[in-house]
Amino acid sequence: MNKDEFISKLPNLPLKSREQLPEKSGIYYVIDDQSIIWYIGLAKKLRSRWAGKSHHRIYQLEKQRKKVFTIYYEFVHETQLDAIEQQRIEQYNPQLNGTIVKTKKLRPTETLLRETLAVIAPYSFILGVEPPRKDDLNFMAKCQSFSSDRRIQKSVLPLSVIHICINLEEFKIDKLKVLFTFLRNVFKKRINYTSNWILNPANKQYEKYGTFLTRRLLVNGFAIEVSMIHREVLQKIQSYDCYDLMQIAGIDIRVMNENTLNILKDTCKLNDAGICLYSDRDNSEYEIVCNQALKRLNPYKIDLVKLLFNEEINQKKFQTLPIESKPKLENNNNLSSRLVNLAAKKIYLQNLLTERGIDINSYQVNKYLERIPTDNNYVDNNSDRTMTIYVKPFLYGDLRKPGHYSQIIYGNKGLINQKNSLDHFPYEAVYLNVKVDKVLWLLLEEYLSDFIKVELNPDEGYIEKYYVSARTTLKPSKISVTLNGKWKTDIPFGTKDNMSYTEVVNIITERLNSSGISKLKFSFSMI
């Protein structure tokens, strides 16, 4: 609902200036630049309630980047806050009141480190530990002279640096493009962690040419730097017994022993591209600095990264991330074009769900996706492909009352005919039951679940058809979704808490636009 004359006359200020709210008790209204009321709440101290990021709805509001919010407020005595708030909510029916609170769930950086190590540890080793650079003024000065700014960033100077090397040879992948795409995905930004792997911005342009450059993560008092080791260095040490087995952040990983590390100190250098051979004939000052950087390393002998949160991680999930290119369907059985397309669709969706960390066992989606056509006798069973969901239509009000015909309502409390009189009616609400593509539903469930039900409560029933005339049945609104430019499905949706069609569409649109699902297009239709 929109603000009225009463709210318009209240004192107000922009949401971004909320620290200027008075420290008094009152009712507040969060309203956008289209005069739509998003939230109504109470506070014994308005300014404290909205201090910093403390308000439980601030994350949802800040996600609406195209909207400008204003906080209106009225002063109310503490003893009347509950009663007045309830009156205002019932009067104005704000968009967010009564909905699920969406918060930004931040996970500790140590968990990101452990998840990354679970992927790369089989192909990597710890080179050594570098003492804090702030203690070596001579080295700092040389780095500054030769524009090695990455080494002397303020956040890194006081920290010991643990150097990890990735051996690209051990991935056993012939196509470097596939390998570097995989590595970029491993180290990509993940918004739900308190910190992320950092690539020197000046080096981003080089990655497109197939070079893996140093990544850095600051975690629990250490800097972790991951770079690669060049083939010629590996050839130099291949005749040695190079490694011991140890742990970092509780993850098993190989560690270069002291003897081999000393050999590398004499013959190699450490730069943004990893460990390379160093020659005394190359006496440029920058190369000398890179050689000194390697000489500063000490052997890694104990697990230095102490876990503060020790979140449980599924190591098998991360160790089995696909590093090969997506499988190509070989049409050795002369499949029809329809079945070739179906097989490609299943492979694409299975990869997409896995990459996004979604459990494909939910709703038995795995059983459907794993059945790939092998010959033209294949039949795509509709019962395996679809599932039942329940929606509450935007039109025609209460489905407990009959339309053109009286229909049967199903539910845990038995079969009941629709009735005009709802006194002592056993079901509190009635939904339409409809079918939906279970794979697409699983992919989008996070964004649509507020407006679609998979299971009903004991006090809720459903109806299979609702006749609005002798021959016409009520159809729910739907969102038409297209993936990868060619696979399309319709997903019905409905209202919640009597929200309007426009309100629901705006919320779903905002969520899908920020979902990060590649090649996703969608449109709405109200039937």
Structural class: alpha+beta
Strand share of the residues? 15-25%
Tell me, rounded to a whole number, the average pLDDT.
87
Shape annotation: globular
Poorly predicted parts: 320-326
Q: Tell me the Rg in angstroms.
A: 30 Å
Number of helical regions? 17
Number of strands: 21
Major sheet: order of its strands? Answer: 7-8-9-6-5-11-10
Helix content: 25-40%
Distance between the termini: 23 Å
What is the makeup of the main sheet? 7 strands, mixed
Overview of this protein structure:
The chain is an alpha+beta fold and 527 residues long. Helix content is 28%, strand content 21%. It has a 7-stranded mixed beta sheet with strand order 7-8-9-6-5-11-10. The two termini are 23 Å apart. 27% of the residues are buried.
How do the helices and strands line up, and which of them pair or pack?
Elements: H1 5-8, E1 12-14, E2 26-31, E3 37-43, H2 46-49, H3 58-63, E4 70-75, H4 81-92, H5 109-120, E5 124-130, H6 137-145, E6 160-166, H7 176-186, E7 198-199, H8 204-207, E8 215-219, E9 222-228, H9 231-237, E10 243-248, E11 251-256, H10 258-267, E12 268-271, E13 274-277, H11 285-295, H12 315-319, H13 337-355, H14 365-369, H15 382-385, E14 386-391, E15 408-409, E16 416-417, E17 429-437, H16 438-448, E18 460-463, E19 477-483, E20 487-493, H17 501-513, E21 520-525
Parallel strand pairs: 5-11, 6-9, 17-18
Antiparallel strand pairs: 1-4, 2-3, 2-4, 5-6, 7-8, 8-9, 10-11, 12-13, 14-17, 15-16, 19-20, 19-21
Helix pairs in contact: 10-11
